[in-house]
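Form P-L/3: holo structure prediction, ligand 6-O-phosphono-beta-D-glucopyranose.
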Amino acid sequence: MDSFALVIFGITSNLSQIKLIPALYDMEEKGLLPSGMTIVGISRREMSDRNLKDYVHSVLHLENIHHKHEIKEATFKKLCMRLKYLGGSVEDQQLYEKLSKFLDHNNRIFYLATYPDLYHYVFENLQKNKLNKQSGGWIRLMIEKPIGNDLPSAKALNNLLLKYFTEDQIFRLDHYLGKETLQNILTFRFANDIFEPLINRDSIDHIQITALEDFGIGKRGGYFDQVGTLKDVGQNHQLQMLAFATMNVPSEFSNEAVTKERLKILQSLMPLPDSIIYGQYEGYPREENVAENSNTDTFYALKTYINNERFKDVPIYIRAGKNLKQTVTEISIVFKNPPNKLLGSLDCGDEPNVLIYRIQPNEGIVLKILTKIPGYETKLQPEYMQYCYRIDPHRHYIPDPYERLLVDAIRGDQTFFNDAEEVEAQWAFIDPLAQALKKPHIYKNGSWGPKEADELLKKDGRAWLEPSMEFCRM
Ligand code: BG6
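OUTPUT (holo model):
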């Protein structure tokens, strides 16, 4: 791997604390950071290099649900050797003059872990100081969702980016694309030819995409209240989940070919604003930094279709929300029952087969089937044929999505990053739905969301699947 400098704008941000610094620690531990690679942390705070190291130390020892393992002092020290601190405001020219003196590498990644309102200052000043100029090395930019807040603002940001960088330098990160469980969908589908012929309208009754969390917004009120669940996870993570599960086989396993197929799905989604259901958990307006009379959605459920031959008329139901009964993220592909199903009249004989991509918590790929209960009678029971990560006999290490995506960015591989068109297609689908936001239905904490979300499926003679924890248990 080439050596390089990683410049993090916003080293004290929530994103840096929760995701970036722990990912860099893990990469250090696994020897994934090349020798001589440096990390320049930028923020407004007055800090010395020593203070930065203390700060990183404390961040690594914070309770972090995404990063639970032991911190080894030797690894921490190695990471510290790479760290440099630069204080100042991103609006200020002088910061960049100092930055040019700090940068001892021609290969550079600029990571924007800061507010989108500040991006343009960073770009302008990088250019003024020729820091975005590729001479004798590569320059890459990493930015996170939200890429805009709707289609016009996303287009404006994409255009702005193109003034300073070329598309192959821009790494728009959606951390779901770095999830091993999501990436494995492509392998499962395209490396095993037996399932692929079934993934179409002839065999599939409907698809459900679920992303539920049993916790609330915590201290993120300032951000979340401006955004809501549809834009926070629906516009990005969940649409990508759908794209992975339904895209056609790419002509080759390359960034261009994979992105092209994802994009085709995103561009053929049909927004149905009349059917979207919005919910809000009880007590949400009393959360920190949330408006008293907030109508922000902490839950949504919608129905859509993919407007192509393969999935024509196959309903897709998507739901997500906070403070619900269970934390679970999955894609369920519910197959049709043949009209004269043998044994269909027995108890649970009419239960359909379901292919489940369980993204979390009990990660796996599972096929729900019917089996005979051992004994002298023909009695049926639903069971799961499963591939489970947690009981992987080879004990493979599952990289955190940030770690995985940073490795890809260092390699210059954009396969699991979004390009401008994808982000815009996602907004084109979401905008009409977001405009239909009315007063959300209030739901009880710890429930499955508002009952209106159940009605959405009931009208079609269907029901949300209760996510099973019966498979891939530890
Ligand atoms: C983030 C959202 O992008 O994804 C959060 O802003 C959400 O609100 C999170 O909780 C879910 O990610 P994960 O990896 O925990 O499923």
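COMMENT: Residues 13 and 30 are 25 Å apart (CA to CA).
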